[in-house]
Amino acid sequence: MSGRVLGVKVEQKGGKTLYLRALNGFVAAAGGFAANDRLTAIHDPRMGQLGTTNHPGATGDVLIDLVDIGAGTRGLDYIQCIPGGVPGEKHAPNLFTHVDRFLFVNLDGKRFIKEDARRDVLRDAMLDQPKAIAWTIVDADGFEQLKNSKGPENEVALKTGTLYYADSIEDLAKKIGVPANNLKEAVDTYNKAVDTKKDPLGRAEGVLVNKIIKARSMPVALR
Predict the structure, then answer these.
(1) Which residues of the chain have pLDDT under 50?
(2) Is 223 a catalytic residue?
(3) How remote is the C-alpha of 157 from its chain's centroid?
(4) Domain range 83-222, CATH architecture
(5) Which is catalytic among the residues 38, 119, 123, 203?
(6) pTM of the predicted model over 0.70
(7) Which of 14, 81, 131, 180 could hold 222 in an S-S bridge, CB 3.0 to 4.6 Å?
(8) What kind and span of H or E run contains 103?
(9) Cα distance between residue 54 and residue 93, in whole Å
(10) Where do you find CATH 3.90.700.10 in the chain?
């Protein structure tokens, strides 16, 4: 591909071809590139190590061609992340659909971020944790609420050992390998915040409505 771009060639159904000349320039929607570790890492080196939940075709091939002929780019550093399964897991569960139902704790069993924070804030906070991994904690009621949307994948995760459950916080802590006293303190502090509507980490009052009673947990990394 070479030369100056003057417009767009359109091939219509039926074989007719149109040439549309741009007077001041044109905007090309090149598709996503977030499944391309090399391209995302250009904007933030951490992104190249996170994996992705994007479809396999989001590799930015058209974007690369456009840049090669001198096209300007905008907003390529606006890369959003969401929690996902840890790298290498084949059956990742999903416990973080309803923000009023879950907590994030790190590998020390401590909360480290308000769970309703913006995605970029969540991303940076999670990447700062040991091994850049955290645990998502929901209780039995929260787990049941997810059955309509995430039930099948969560059931598979239970059977394959990427999701854990226990009848007490202490037992759950043992299963996921975090200090029981820290996890209990995190849950107790959060449950108290539900009563007082004041979360030490600043979680909004509107999502301080459901206590953690009997817990299930999954490890999460970022996607």
Answers:
(1) none
(2) no
(3) 18
(4) Alpha-Beta Complex (3.90)
(5) 119
(6) yes
(7) 81
(8) strand 102-105
(9) 17
(10) 83-222
